[in-house]
Amino acid sequence: MSSESSDFFELKVISPTRLLTEGRVTELQVPGLDGYLGIWPGHRPLNACLGPGEIIFKTIDNREERVTIKGGVIKVEPAKILIMADLEEK
After folding, report:
1. Running DSSP on this structure, what letter comes out for residue 60?
2. What confidence tens digit (pLDDT) does each residue in 71-82 have?
3. Nearest 5°: phi and psi at 85?
4. Per DSSP, which regions of 1-90 are E strands?
């Protein structure tokens, strides 16, 4: 854990065509290529590829939300996370 941790981080999830969600989040789970990754505020920097599954996160008001993706990439910084996601075509 980083010494600059707080109780939340800023999360932004985007697809090639639109912003899917953004907000303050207290925890995050993402589908990595080898299983789910858990990320909490103050996590060390990380860049990783994502596989198919659900992005699961808790907002600062304790609501659990989910976004289904077919893959993508994640960039983790101590106070913010950016996910660039591929979605299933409808």
Report:
1. T
2. 999 999 989 999
3. -115, 145
4. 9-14, 19-32, 35-39, 46-50, 53-59, 64-69, 71-76, 80-86
For the domain made up of 9-86, the CATH class stated in words is mainly beta
CB 7 within 8 A of CB 41: yes
Q: In sequence order, what are the beta bridge partners of 33?
A: none
81/60 Cα distance (integer angstroms)? 15
Contacts of 62 (CB under 8 A, 6+ apart): 26
- Report how far residue 38's alpha carbon sits from residue 31's, in angstroms, rounded to the nearest whole number: 9
- Rounded to two decimals, what is the model's pTM? 0.89
Residue 23, pLDDT score? 96
Confirm if 27 and 58 have CB atoms less than 8 A apart.
Answer: yes
pLDDT, one tens digit per residue, over 39-48 is 999 899 999 9
The CA distance from 13 to 23, in Å, is 9
